[in-house]
What does this fold into?
Amino acid sequence: MSPDMRAALAEATARLAEHSETPRLDAELLMAHALGASREALLLGGLDRPAPEGFAALLERRVDGEPLAYITGSRAFWTIDLAVAPGVLIPRPDSETLIEAAVDHFRGTAGPRRVLDLGTGSGALLLAALAEWRQASGVGIDRSSAALAIASANAEALGMGARAEMIEGGWAGTGEAFDLILCNPPYIGTDEPLPRDVIEHEPHSALFAGADGLDDYRAIAPLLPAQLAPGGVACIEIGATQGAAVSALIAAKGLAVRVRPDLAGRDRCVIATH
It folds into this structure.
């Protein structure tokens, strides 16, 4: 007979303690996924029922290092839920710093009309912005056809298919001037260590950017002056030690720059304006 969910969650939490910084949360999300329910419904429904048969297999995948978001197929970001899968970078809460910076920039105005997301991945930044500003439309660009398929599916699922155009490309841009530019480029140095679940499962093309982690910023900086409309803002994610270096690259192109920290106080976003 299967153990009840309370006992199964306790055992899973103990096993995940060596593999996750949030073992109890991971266990609850896996249990909810096995039930086909939300975490809230799981907890409100009581934990005295037998654990679902599929939970054990899901737990083994997480213990083996597979990212939770790939197992459940979804990730919450800002005010939206996104489908994610192998081949696309998993959105992180740190990246919400870019949306917070954009909200502050446009506070008291009608907001941006046109949004560009360079390296859109799952579509997280673009779709979060379109959820925030209902009158806006935008473009997401990515080199990966697999990522673009996921981003397009996310746009449709969120009812934004008519407002979000996903196109294949690199750092060449579109030639259009946008009110808001969002970008979370690769910024990990090739020799920097990463957690096992990241290095073994997430796409390296979305993580690594040369020996110093700055290669993609060197390509992005020259695009910004022409792509950024007057009164607009570019919000670009950085690694915690890259604020000065990335600011210098962008300032050299004639833009005003400042750095915004994330909730943990680490440098996370370079904000650029004309």
Remarks:
- The first helix runs from residue 5 to 16.
- The chain has a mean pLDDT of 96.
